[in-house]
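Changelog note: in this version the structure field was regenerated for every chain. One regenerated record is shown below for reference.
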Amino acid sequence: MNNEFTFTIKSISFDENYHPSDNTRITTNFANLARGKSRQENLRNTLKMIDNRFNALAHWDNPKGDRYTVELEIISVEMNIDAKSSGNAIPLIEILKTKIVDRKTNERIDGIVGNNFSSYVRDYDFSVLLLEHTQNQPEFSTPDNFGDLHGKLFKYFVNSNAYKDHFKKPPVICLSVSSSKIYHRTENQHPVLGVEYQQDEYSLTDEYFKKMGLKVRYFMPANSVAPLAFYFIGDLLGDYTNLELISTISTMDTFQKIYRPEIYNANSAAGKSYQPSLKHQDYSLTRIVYDREERSQLAIEQGKFVEEQFIKPYQAILEQWSAHYTL
C-alpha cells in the first residue's frame, strides 16, 4: 500500500456561545441545538442539565450539589487520503470530550473522549446503502461486508499517532439502547454506572460497533429511567475513574432526555424486563427545542454527500486499503 491515511484533529468548545462551523456534520446532536431563535437558551439549559446530573451522581463531599461543572469540547476528525496533499481532507467523525472542573480544589480533570458519536460514513451505511439494500426485500438483511470499511477506519484512527497524541485513554461511546431488543435486569450493580442489564442478542448498532473494535454493556445509573449502551475497548469498569464515568453519564443522559424523551424522560423506570419504545406516550418533555424529523432527513442528505465526495471517488483506494488493513 502506497496510501497512508493521516488525520487532522480540531476542537471547538460546546458552550452557550457555540456556533456550528460550516463543515460540521449538521445532524450532530449538538449542532441541531445551536440553530434557530432558541439556540442560546437551548445551549444554556442543556449545560445546566448536565451539571445538575453530574453533581447528583458525584454527591460525596458535595453537600450543596454544586461542586462540579462539566466543560465540553467537540472533536472533529478529518482524514487525508493522500499524505502528500492537504487538499483531499474528508470530514470523518465527530466525538465529544468532557473536562471536569472541581470548584472546591480548582482542579481541571480530564473526562472521557467519545460520548456522542457522529460519522459521515455511518450516515452513508445506514441512510443510503442499507436503505437501498432493504427496499422491496421480503426479509431484513444487511449488505455484504456491511460496516467493514467504517470499522477499519475507526480502528485505524484510534490506533493512530494523532489520537494518541491528543488523548490518554481509549474512547467510550454512550448511546440509546435499541427499541428492537428486550433487556433484562441483572443483580450486578456498579456504584456509578448503576444496575446492569443484558439482552439475548446484539442489535444492528451493537454489531456495527463491534466491527469498530468496541464491546458493549448496558447500565441504568441511579435516577435514570432506562439503561444506556456503553461501547468501549478495554475494561469499562476498571479503566476509568468514577468522575470520568459520571462525566459521560451526565452528558449523554441529558442528550438522550432531549432526543429520545419517550425512553429517557419517561415517567416510569424500566422494569426487570424492558423493551424501549419511541411510541411510548407516558413521558415528559424538556424545555429544549429539538427537531427530530429534520435530523432524520439530514442524515440521508449527508449520507448521499459522503457517497458522492468520498465513497465513489476513492472506491478503488478504499477497497485496496480495506483488503490489506489488519490491526
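Spot check on this record: Residues 116 and 134 are 27 Å apart (CA to CA). The chain has a mean pLDDT of 89.
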